[in-house]
Amino acid sequence: MPKKHLSSPLPEEDGTQDVRFSGSAIKRLFGMMLPHKKVLLLCALLLLVITVLDLYRPILIGDAIDRFITGPYRPGEEKEMRFLGVVKAGAVYIVILVALFFFTRWQRLMLQKTGQQIIYDLRNRLFEHAEGLDLKYFDVTPVGKTVTRITNDAESINEVYSNILAGLLLNSVKVAALAVIMLILNARMALYSFLLVPLAAFLTVMFRKLSKKAFRITKTRVTALNTFLSEHLSGMKLIRVFGREKAKYDEFCDKSEDLYRANFREVLVGALFRPGTYLVSAAALALILYLGSVSVLDGTVSIGTMYIFLQYINSLFAPIQELAEQFSTLQSAVASAEKIFTLLDTPASVVDRPGCVSSPRLKGRIEFDHVWFAYSGEDYVLKDVSFTIEPGQKVAFVGATGAGKSSILSLIGRYYDIQKGSIRIDGIDIRDLKLSDLRASIGQVQQDVFLFTGDIASNIRLRNEEISDEAVRAAAEHVNAARFIERLPKGYHEKVSEGGATFSSGQRQLISFARTLAADPSILVLDEATSNIDTETEIWIREAIERLMQGRTTIMVAHRLSTVQNADRIIVIHHGRIRESGTHQELLEKNGIYKKLYLLQVSKE
Predict the structure, then answer these.
(1) Residues 6 or more apart from 2 whose CB is under 8 A from it?
(2) pTM across the whole model
């Protein structure tokens, strides 16, 4: 049982600072309906038909009571005729019920289908937008937060399109129509009925205000919990290595308790509103029952009219209560929509420029011309960096951790944009190249290989159907990956779990080499590709790298200098600047930074 007091503050935080959405979420939710306006218009017409039929039912029964049960006999009218009238009224009532069933079913099916289609399109749009965001966004945003936007928050909006908007329209029309019909039937009794409507409306407004804040806090708490789970389930091995299960469990309990308290506040708001509106409804019903009874005894109101009013009183306050509850659900959806639209409004700065050049096959001449780059503000990681790599050359970047080596690799693929200078490939500024063409020409092998759930073939192909099964096998054979793949029970269709945890680091690396070769890039980027290799596959990997580099411009980053000694040129980066450049032997003769790094590693070996 949670121990915190429910009155304690509930700060809106989920591990990162949310940007508050400043536009109109309701307006944009309606905007998403425009492509389906014909279907929604038909649903609105059906709702009007349903409302008319529903409101006619009490009138049908009331008229039958006044005419065939309590009313005086007309000249020539017999008891059988009255009985037949009651039967006809009952038959019409049954027809109305059947019509209501079919119209309601038809309308709800169309709404549900339309709602699901809108959410399907929204989820696809969210994922597509997330794919196009800068890497900087993912550097600072927890994965669980983005997952929550695409799944939980998108699904919360589904209720709006499937039920809430239709319910709001139906109940709004119903309340207005009830008021008009009641005034026509008996203005005096109608005005008495309306005496307590302002109180119900006041309760509705208060409920809306309170629930809006409660739902916002709940959505934030759900995001925080999902973010925590995503991060810590991924890092479960590390938690166990350091024996932090109890500490992390306590942390999870705190976040779970925060969500519990937020949910409980929602419950408290609803628990105050629902009994209040029910009390108002009961009071209005008692008032009409008293006044109607007096009027019936006085002969000023018929029993049938009394019946109609009693039915309409229930029908008047029920939609008001439903409207409030629908507003409550709408507030929840709006809270989710605000977070979704905040993600959709997050701009991507690394995008194709207007009129960008399409170059499907780059040769691989790379130029850095006085490049300055910072991940944030003016805290420059690279400072006035200039170099040229000719097509087919093998160039290595070395230096201490944090010198800026990996940043250079990220900039070549334009995963970030530079602040000053220019980067050119084949003489074209990469900001003027089409991003898809630029990245298709660059094959990158990283230190930490990520494998997707599926099989080995799908991880080599990466859903590129232009790469045939034969090409997958040829790539694997060329980089020595086939040596272990073909010994597996299912070969290339061997199941791959999340992250490829069932394979050794060397095997994962060989699969990544095959993946890169299958894409046939003209520029090869190796970011610490030979580190953390098990002895069994080390020789295979070295052979694979040699084969991969053939005929390609190759850029390498490595801490182990023994792996880059055969490079055509080695560039030494120190504190974001190029300090030395040359072959392995030339740099040793210079007796500078490179020689110090080399002697330091030799002494450790």
Answers:
(1) 257, 260, 261
(2) 0.74
